[in-house]
Every structure is written in structure tokens, then in C-alpha cells.
Amino acid sequence: MTSTGSGPSRREAPGRRVLPRPMAALAEQRQRAMVSRPPLALAWRQLRKHRVALIGGVILIILYTMSLFGDFIAPYSLDYTDRERFFHPPTLPRVVDAEGRWHLRPFVYRTELVDPGLRKYRIVTDRTYPLDVFVRGEPHRLFWIFPTTLHLFGVDPAARLFLMGTDQFGRDLFTRILYGSRISLIIGVLAVGITIPIGLLYGGIAGYYGGRVDNIMMRLVEVIIAFPGFYLFLTLSAVLPTDVGCATRFYLIVIILSFLGWTGFSRLIRGFVLSLKEREFVLAAKAIGLDDLRIIIRHILPNTSSLVIVVATLSIPGAILGESGLSFIGFGIREPCASWGNLLTAGANLPNLAQSPWLLLPGVFIILAVVAYNFLGDGLRDAFDPRLRSS
Amino acid sequence: MRRMAIAVGVAAILLVGGIVPLGAQQPKLTLPGIPNPGVASYAPEIGKYGGTYVISQISDPRTFNPIVAQDTASTAVTGALFEALVDQDYLTGEIVPGLAESWTVSQDGRTWTFTLREGIKWSDGQPLTTEDVAFSAQAIFTDGVDNSAVDLLTFQDQPLRWRVLDKRRIQFITPRAICPVGIFLRLIGAIDVVPKHKLADALAKGGAEFNRTWGINVNPKELVGTGPFILQSYVPGQRLTLLRNPNYWSVDKRGQRLPYLTRYILLIVPNLEQSRLKFLAGETDFYSARPREFAELKAQERQGSFAVYDGPETFGSEFLVLNQNPAGVGSGGLTPAQLSWFQDVRFRRALNHAIDRNTIVQQVYAGRATPSWSPISVGNKLYVNTNVPQYPYNLDRAQQLLAEAGYRKGADGLLRDAQGNVVEFTLQTNAGNTDREAIGNILRQDFVKLGMRVTFAPEAFPSLVSKLTGSYRWQAIIIGLTGGIEPSSGRNVYLSSGDLHMWRPNQEKPVNEWEAEVDRLFEQAACETDQAKRKTLYARWQQIYSEQAPMMWFSNPKTQPAVRNTIGNIKLGLQGVTGTLETRYYKTVYK
Amino acid sequence: MLRHIVQRLLNLIPLLFGVTLISFIIIQLSPGDFLSEMRLNPVVSSETVEAMRRNFGLDQPLHIQYLKWLRAIFLRGDLGYSFAYHVPVTWLIGSRLLNTLILNLAALVIAWLVAIPIGIHAATRQYSFSDNTLSMTAYLGISTPTFFSGLLLLLFAFKTRLLPIGGMTSLDYEFFPWYGKVLDVARHLVIPATVLAFTASAGLMRQMRGNLLEVLRQDYVRTARAKGLAERPVIYKHAVRNAINPLITIFGFEIGGLLSGSAILENVVGWPGLGRLILEALVQKDLYVVMGSLLIGSITLVLGNLVADILLAFADPRIRYD
Is the pLDDT of residue B500 over 80? Predict the structure, then answer.
């Protein structure tokens, strides 16, 4: 999972074993550049000049904000089901009515099911339903804590506001994409959040002690790396209990992602530490008798901070793709919970897709998030290390 | 061989035209060496020879050994290669002659004598004899042969016995008078006859060896059968190609040897979507559409040059079952309070009123289903009782029933029992089955409206099954069963002693008076030879089940087979079967 | 060098042993077994299910099951027996192996043929319009899940009827002459191979571009230019060769992924490969098929890594194995 955005053969997301290579290059070149490592401020200045990275950053800020306020922004609740309106096309707010009159306030029309088999809906134009802001709707908990019924926008319940259409059960896709983002966007961050400390410590210890300790520790890493990533990923997720709630399953998948991810990263750190441990400041720390763990944590690992930031940013998209792939084939997040991957499963039905192309929208969100992370990651890499500039 | 068959066919036409007026008494039709061939009298049209018929299925066969084959992917293939002594008429469900041309039963109902048609040959030219039939039965009873027919052919712990009288006659002897009656011939019809000369060596080496014989890695030439087709090639993950068996023993109304088709191909696709795509793209000739697809396919009939048929209901159905088993109390399973609610028939009836069957029919099946109130499908005209008590969707009525039973809805909107416990439970189904997941969502929403706290948690099929049949730690489950025509095939489910008596399995003796009555009804019906009386007994059973509501059926989905217009002899039968393979033909044959 | 290779090969044995042990443990952690489905069949008695359990050896203690399986591998190269298909796992895997290999090799060839020239093109015209377009396309390539692009192309095939929808060969494949067979498979390859090659070439192109840009900044290139050498020979004779060298490692890793790189996509487009086999086996709990697939996948992977190292040693005279 610790892959980089520049991983050359990004085929099946988590199966990318290729990654060590660009990271190794990164580490190697970073070491060469060590002496003149720019401080954070300098890196920030570099980053600000990197237009693509800024675009990535802005996209991510928007996505995460939408995710955080998801239940407030969503006009409906996660399991709101309109039994009458499945595969309903998106109802986009309009400003011109059926008679050609312009309206200041966007509005929608009511729809009626004409033919359930062919999913035909008729737009009823007898009256308009203006878009309201800060409306009362279904109860939810803002930030998972504050119970409220307030929603950012909505329409009169007689009409529906399906911004991105509905799925096969008549659930609002836009709402589910928002809720799904909480899984898809956070899973990567969490997985990397687990991977990095483990990798740092494991790789740090192996690299620092070297010799037999290193040998044994690296054997374990090699065994895990020897698995074809996606096969192992599948096998592991087949083991997960399925009768647990969404949250539990979510954390279990995070753990699986981390289980696969820490190895590559610890290898990278090990190589880096191996080269650092003979340097003056380490020798000096040893000379004044500091204990090993302290030296590793306080003196050696901080030197890897910029490397960690870059690798972390470039690993998250891998985790996002991994989760979506897994959920897509039904091994990851399952109904009734929503993630971008399993929302796309409904779209795997091609004839449906041909009729209801909006079912592809979750995929667009996956790509958007992953592209944004890659933009940002590349920018960070360039900023931290001008010698690695590739664009 | 084929040219000869056609020549015989022409002769037969002349004969028919010359002597007998249309549609009158059947003339005696024969095939060279087969004086009494099977006659496909039900096929509406006389077909043409030639052509390829292509269908798709979503998994690879697991074996070509018909004795061992259990899954539909395998039986779809072995069904075209092998046959049994008797066959089931797909239109009426009646038992009709197969490899055996006739049978008799002794006065005490224990000894059944079957006579093989004369002159039937295996596809390698060897003659079929009763030794092959006896060998097939023996294979089923051999230790270690993976087979489920053995359970059906064992009566009160005693196996079926048989005796070869001569080359054409074989006797089957049952330990006692055959109960269940209706099912015996169907059981004989489940024994596919396999060639002794090909399989005897394998069986001699034991069950394990036999299970592996005729696996999917077999050389197709080894697969010798009596069915209408023979296997030409199997490409794993891609397709099976079957060719016409020139030795087949059945003819059409004009005496032409069947089957008409030259090739029969089964494409293997990864999922139903691909199956549908291939049909729409014209790559396959048949697609068994799901209810929701009916209208859409209907609209494309002309453009795609196919027809979608408005088929009858299937025999299977989905239902909700609540755990009433005291052994299920414990962590992950039931709380004592839940057990007492689920055992309370008033509670079950209230829930039954909260099941919105019309919405299920509309939303899950797009109107292509019929609400169901009984364990027997509406599609099973032979046995269904349509006069059982019904529970129309009515939340007020449900609320009222709950109130009468002592459940109160509090100010917080939550329903509590008389002891003050909040009514809450976990509703499960097997994950990945979108129909059941959709039903679960509908049910949950309505139960919540009654003030219950219901969690809907789909779970992987294997672990769900281990709960149902092993640990009993579950609360409420939505699951489905497929059914046969005879209700007695579901004994394991409906008898109180059954393994699959899900709400409270393996009872030593019936816990409730109504369960005792059901047990008695089944025993009586089993040995009842009069079809009408059987129907009355089973009607009473359906009545009880509906009153007691241990299982709450939702609906019986309809079938909607879609067939390319180039394929002839299509006539809808039970469960939407469109005809038989051997009478199917290709209307325009390209040369 | 040879000694190094032998040494590495010997090291693989304990490694693969670890792989089998871990996979066995993981699979055993999951609830239910192959017979779960049969237990819910009304006509099968629990005695019959038990008898089948004994037949499959599933009633034995776990460590015995594992050791028996391991012993068969060492003695006969036998990967065990599929419960579902009643055939040896080696046969089952063998029947799918070639298909997966064909798909991944085709994708690999396309990716390299496309990515290298494009990478060179982009690097030599840094920040030009075409460079920027290509870079953005590459970003899209590395960010699009294969199942998504696969779906889109299938949709395209469905709407236009230009390409076959899924599968690997046509009905009349057996009747085609050899070139017809090749063309037929090629036609079916278009969608899945394009999808895989799109993602792979995006990464490769970025790498090639980056490498070449770096080489072009090197002193010797500057010197060559300063000496007045023409631009083309500088780039194609000197710079490109040095820029390609680091990609050799990638090539090795790609070889390692030949069997496992297309797992999801195979299931989306219906390619009859290993990915579909393992997914099906996992769902059915067909124990030894899962174990066998994992093992075969691992072997290809580690061998691929080895190949990468060897190729690198040949390409870069600075690397020497003692």
C-alpha cells in the first residue's frame, strides 16, 4: 500500500509491489540531498509555486469539508428510501419554468412514476417547488454528536431533490456519496496513520541494530511482500466477520490495509536508517550514552520527516483505490453502508448503466480524490526535495 | 446415420399423410433398432435439422459425473448428456416414460418393475442394459460417493434394493410400502443412468475415486451417455460445446429422430449482467430474465428479435423466520426476552401485518411477483391452498395486535414489552443477494415504524448457514428455499424433527400442538396414494402454517424467459421452462 | 553471479514456506467451510454432509491438514484437490494460467511500446502543451481504478457493438485457422489489455519522463551539447539509454505481477483467468484452490524480483554480486 503516485504499474490498486522502487530512489536521492535539506518554510514556499499541487490541495479541502458536514449537506438520510422512485434521474434545480418564465430562486418539479418496469418518470409542472436553505428534514447527528434536523438545503417533501439521481432502491445517490466519502476518504488516512508509526519503528529498529536482528525482522517483511498483494487482500477480507456493524468492518479493513502497507514502508525506513546510523550526530548521541530506543526515536527518525510526509501523501491514494476495489467486488464495505466502491457496484450492471449513467458518479469521485492526492504528493515531493523535481 | 434418420422421417410423413387424418390417433413410430422410441408429442412444431443453440451460465461445471453432480452449473450439462428411467413432463409435472418405456407396481406397493425401451444405445454404440441401471443405483449407495440422492432413497433407515430380471427388466424393492408415494417415481427420475462399461473400474476403487472420475478434466470422448447431446469440448472459464447424439432414442411426431440441433453451446460468463449483455448483443439465444428486467426487455423485443414470455411463478420463495429455539439464547443469539416475543404467535402475526408485500412486489420485483401467504408457491397449482388466512399490510392493525399482546409504545416512540424491555433485534440475510437486501430494507423501515429497534445486517452465506444449522445464535433471518412439486420434499423443513426446521430444529417431540398436527399431516399424506386426499391434507398444513406464522412468506417471483425468435418449439411449462432441448430447433439454418 | 542466483533461489524456499503457512492460517480464521451451502439443502442429511467432510479430510486437525498438503507439494508437486471441482488444483490453475499470462503480457508490451516514446517526447518538450496534456492524462491513468475504466469500455462495446463484450474467444474459435485464432483472441483482448496498459503506461511514462529530464541535467549531457553535438544523437544515443536503465527494475516487478495484476479486471470483463478462479474459490471456501493460487502468485512475484535484480546487474556494470 505504501505506493507512490508515480508507481509505474498501478494495475490493481493494492497489488502494486512496484512501489519500493521509486521510493527507494526517493530515499537514495534524499540522502544525497541531505546536507542542503530545505527547512519546512522553504518547502512551503516551493509548494506554493507548484500550481498543480495547490489545485490538489484545494480539491481535497473541499472533499473533506463535504465529508465532515456530509449529513448536514445531504438533503436526505443514509437509508432514506423512496420506494416509488428507484433509478430516478437526477433532478437538477432549474430557473426557467415550463412556461418559459424565469425564476430568481431555483426550483424543482414534482415527478410521478409512470412505468415501474421501464423506470419512466413524468415531470408534473402544475406547481414549482423552490429550493430552500436551512430546512428541517430527517434527524441526524452533526459531527456524530449534535442531534439536529437541520439540513443545508432541500425542497418541500412533496417533490424530491435528487441531485445525482437514485439507485435501484430509490436512495438518493448524492446523499450516499456524501456518506460514502466518510469511509472512502478517511480509510486511506487512517491506514497510513497506522502504517507510518509501525513502519518507522520497525524499520528504525531493524536498520539501527542491523546484523541478525535486521536479518530476522526483514525476513518477516519479505514473506508478506512475497504475496501478490491483491490476492492476499482478498483472502484477508474473506476472513472478516460480516455480521458486524459498518464501523467495525470499516476498522477491520483499515487494519488489513495497514497489514499490507507497513512492510514496504519499514523497508524504506530501514535503508534510510542504515545509512544514517554511522553519521556524526548518531555517533555523538551514542557516545554520551543515550539508550538505543531514544536515539532511534529522538535523533534518527525525525530526520525522516519530510520523507514520511511525501510517502504518506502518495500512499493514501493506493489505500483509497484498494478499498474501492474491494468494496466493488463485494469483499469490502457492504450494504447498507455506503462507500464509493460499493456504490459503483450498482453501476456494474451495464444495461442499467446504459439507461442510468448517473450510477457512474461515485467512480468520478474516486478518481477526483486520487488525482488530488497525487497532485499534492508530487508537489510535496518536489517541494521537499528540489533535486527530485520531475515536472 | 443422420441421413438415414432423415430418410426414415420422410417415409413416416408419407405414412401419416396417407392413412391418418390430422391430429388423430398416433401411428406407430419407430427408429432403426428401436421399435418403441420416445415421441415428443407435446412439441407444437415439426423442426428442421441443423443450427446452433447458444445459452450462457454463470459458473463452470464442477463435474461431468451425473451421480456426483449437485450444482446447477454441472447438472445443466449432465442433463443434456444423461437420462433416467423416467422423466418429468415439463408442462404438467407428471411422470412420463424415459429410458424405461413402462413400469408396474405390485399389489403391496413395494415392488416396482421397470422395462427398458428396446434397442437404446450409449453414444459409443454399446447397448444400454438393466446392468447399467443397477450399476447407477449401486454407485449412489457406495460409501464415500458424494451424493444427496442417497438420503432420499433411504426409507426409515433402510436402503432401496433392486434386482435385475433380464436385460430389459429391473425391479426396485422398497423396505415398506412406499411413503412418500408421490415422490418415489420422482426419485427414480433423479437417478441418471451411467454406463457400467466405462465407470465400473472407478467405482471398484471406492467412493473417493468415483467422485474424481469424469471430473472436468476428463477427455470428452470418455463421457458416454444416452442423452440428446454429447460433449465435444470444454474450455474452462469460457464455454462448453455439445454435439447432437446420433443415437438418441426419441422422435418427433413425424418419426424424425431428435434432437434437431447440431450444436448446443453453453457460454460461461462471470455474472448475470454479462449473461444479459450477451443476450442483448445477440451472442446467445436464451436469457432467463429477472423480474425487474421484464418491461425493459419487452420494449426491446422487436429491435433485438426475441420474445420475452410472461411466465408463471417459480416454486421458490423468500421468507422471514424468527428464532424460537431456547438453544439460541446466549451471546450473539437471543435474549430471553426476545425468545418470549418470538414464541408469541400474536407478536408474529403483528409483524406479518407489517410486511408490505405489495411494495416488495413492486419495488423488488417490479410487479413481476405474486404476494404469498403459504409455504407452497402460487405456481404449484397442484398443491397450493389459496384460502389460507392473509395478513394484509396494515401498520395500525399490527400496532393494535401488539397492544393487545401487552406491548406499549412509549413517549420516546420505542416499543416495550410488558416487562419494560425495548423490543429490538437484528435482522439478517445473506450478503450479496440484492433482492433479499432490498426486502430487508423494506421490512426494517416498517418494523421501525412500529417502534421496534431493528438492525439490518447482511452476512456472508456460509456463516449465516452455520448459525442457522449449527450454533442457533441468530434472531431474525430472511432466507429462501427452492421447492419441488411434492411438499414432502420439504419434510426436513416442516417436520418438527427436521434439521432445517429453522425456527426450532431437531425437536425430540413436537413442542406445540400445531406442530404435532403438521407432523401427523405429513405422515398421513406421505402414504396417501389418492392425489386429491393428499391435496386436502397439505391444504390443512398450509392453513396451520399461515395461522401460526412461524415463517412469513413475501411473494413468489414470476419467471420471464426470453428467447431469440430464430428458435422454434417454445411453449411455456412449469416454472417458466420453455421447452425441451431435444425438440428445440433453429428456424433459419445458414449453409 | 550464478552463485548469487542459486543462493537467492535457495532463500526462496523458507520464504515460500512462510507464505503457505500464513495463507493457511488466514483461511482457517474464516467462518464456515466448503460444505456450508450443502447444510442448507433440505434434501441432504447431516450424515451425508459429515461423510463428505471426512472425504475431504476436513475432519482432521488443522495442522495435519496443513502438513499433508505441504508433503504432497514436496513429494509430487501436487497442490491438493479442489472440493468444488473434483480435480487437482494444479489442473485447475493450469487451465487458467495461460489466459492470465496472455492478458498481462499483452498489456505489458503495449504499455512499454506506448510509454517510452511518449515519455521521451514529453521530456524533450518539457512544459509544452503536449507535455502538459500528457502529464494530466498520466495522472488520470494512475488514478483510475481498472474496474472503472473496464466498465466504461464495456459500456462502449455494448453501445457500439464494435468489440465483443467480455470473454476470450468466439463460439467458432475451434474452426478458425491459426491466424484466425490469434486475431480472435486479439479482438477479445482489446478492452482488458487497453485498460491495464492505460494504468501501467501512465506510471511508466511519468517515470521515463522524470528519468530523462534528470539525465538531461547531468554534466555529461551538458558537455556533449557544449561540444556541439546535435540534439538528436545526444538524446537518443546517450540520454535515453541511461534513462531507461532504472526502468529495468520496474520491468522485473511487472513480471512478478503477471499472474496477479489483473484480478479485479478479469471479474469485470469476464476474462477466464486466475483472478476469477481465486475469487470464486474464496467465496466457496475451496481451501486448496485459494492456497494454490496464492502460492503460484507468490512464486511468480519473487521470481520477478529476482529477474529484476539480474537484469539490473547486466545493465549496470557498477552492480556486482560476489
Answer: yes
B478 φ, ψ (degrees, to nearest 5): -105, 120
Rounded Cα–Cα distance for residues B458 and B584 (Å): 41
pLDDT tens digits along C195-242: 999 999 998 998 899 889 888 888 888 888 888 878 787 787 778 888
CA distance B464 to chain C (A): 9
Clarify whether residues C51 and C129 are in a common domain: no
Chain C residues within an 8 Å CB radius of A339: none
Contacts of B454 (CB under 8 A, 6+ apart): B424, B425, B426, B427, B443, B444, B447, B448
Q: Quick one: A143 exposed, middle or buried, by C-beta within 10 A (0-12, 13-18, 19+)?
A: exposed
Of C17, C44, C76, the residue that ends a domain is C76
Q: Where are the beta strands (DSSP E) in B209-269?
A: 229-235, 239-244, 250-251, 263-268
- For testing contact with chain A, the best of B279, B292, B361, B365 (most A CBs within 10 A): B292
Nearest CB to A235; choose among C143, C247, C282: C282
**Contact between B283 and C165 using a beta-carbon 8 Å cutoff:** yes
Q: Cα distance from B428 to chain A (closest Cα, Å)?
A: 8
- Is residue B227 domain-resident? yes
Domains identified in chain C, total number: 2
Indicate if A112 and A221 belong to the same structural domain.
no
Task: Give the total number of structural domains in chain A.
Answer: 2
**Would an 8 Å CB–CB cutoff place C146 in contact with chain B?**
no
Residue closest to C273 by CA, chosen among C129, C40, C92, C83: C92
Cβ-based neighbour number of residue A92 at 10 Å: 12
Selecting from B215, B283, B463 the residue whose C-beta is nearest the C-beta of C86 gives: B215
Provide the domain limits for residue A341.
175-388
Sort strands B263-268 and B239-244 into parallel, antiparallel or unpaired.
Answer: antiparallel
CA separation for the pair C160, B172 (Å, rounded): 59
Asked whether B276 and B68 are in contact (CB, 8 A), the reply is no
Indicate the pLDDT class of residue A39, thresholds 50, 70 and 90.
Answer: low
Indicate the burial class of C66 (C-beta count within 10 angstroms; 0-12, 13-18, 19 or more): middle
Whether B465 has its CB under 8 Å from any CB of chain C: the answer is yes
The answer to whether the Cβ–Cβ distance between C37 and B461 falls below 8 Å is yes
Same domain, A218 and A330: yes
What's the pTM?
0.80
Which residues form the domain of C247? 95-315
B149 and B210 fall within a common domain: yes
What interhelical angle do A173-209 and A211-225 show, nearest 10? 150
| Secondary structure of residue B586 in the 3-state scheme | strand
Q: Which domain holds residue B358?
A: 317-557
C-alpha cell at B82: 444423461
Q: Rounded to whole angstroms, what are the CA distances from B215 to B82, B233, C320?
A: 15, 13, 51
pLDDT in tens, A59-116: 999 999 999 998 889 888 887 878 778 888 998 888 888 888 888 889 999 888 887 6
Do the chains contact at A351 and B296, CB–CB below 8 Å? yes
CB B228 within 8 A of CB B259: yes
CA-based nearest distance B72→chain A, Å: 23
Instruction: Let me know if residue C151 belongs to a domain.
Output: yes
Q: How many domains is chain B partitioned into structurally?
A: 2
> By the CB < 8 Å criterion, does B303 face chain C?
no
Which of the other chains make 3 or more beta carbon contacts under 8 angstroms with chain B?
A, C
Taking the CA atoms of residue C117, residue C119, residue C125 and residue C129 in that order, the dihedral angle to the nearest 10 degrees is 100
Do residue C51 and residue B144 have CB atoms under 8 angstroms apart? Answer: yes
**Residue of higher predicted confidence among B83 and C241:** B83
Q: Is B591 contained in some domain?
A: no
More confident residue, C103 or A117: C103
Q: Which helix (H) or strand (E) holds C203?
A: helix C178-217
Distance, CA of B213 to CA of B329 (rounded, Å): 45
